[in-house]
# Entry
Amino acid sequence: MSRRARPVSLVLSLVSVFAALNVIGDFVPLTPIIGFEQSRLTLGWAFASLTGLMLGPLFGGLSCLLASLAELFLGFPLLIPFGPLGLVRSALAAFQTGLFSTRRWAFSGGILLLLIIGWLLTPQGKEAMLVLAFHVLGLVLILASRSRVANALESHSRRQIGLAVAIACYCGNISRHLFGNLLFVLLASLPAVVFLTAMPLTFVEQTFFALLSGVLGASLVLLGLRQVTYLG
# Structure
């Protein structure tokens, strides 16, 4: 999708609207984070990746960053375990999804590969290598799909669009997941057993978020909203 010049007022409006949607989504709790019972995974995980899909990597990431800043001032508990670096987690999901869905799959794959290497460089990561099954799958999907995801988004097939959105959003969210795991290791020194124990829950969560994003994203794309909201 080509980048179009947009009025500043429209850019600010779209970035603000999607930021507000992410804040609302993050106030809808779903499942607890193992090791930090005061925190929850939220509906915002689906909204963040969709923000990258709809606005593009740069403005999608910016919108999610603004949402995280707003949540910081609101005292949102999910940011507590991560410190200031937690502000960029949802922005990373949006950025990754936006890159992958606009034929910049090589950059998206490179970021995920760096996160995987970073995980393997930690003691807990070496003990919990099995956790990388989710993230290696994401990397394989990026390398196998490449520009096919972006091509499918320009088709008129609901099935193709839904699958493309689900794949792109999965890769965005799994990058966010691994970045969060790294923060848990570096900032909270969580043991490897915590991440291994969480694997069944991670499977359910990431499958749910991918399916939900696929359904919602396909509807938005087929309605032609992405052509209106895409900012580059």
Notes: The chain has one domain: 8-229. The beta strands are 29-33, 36-42. The CA atoms of residues 25 and 44 lie 4 Å apart. The domain at 8-229 is CATH 1.10.1760 (Arp2/3 complex 21 kDa subunit ARPC3).
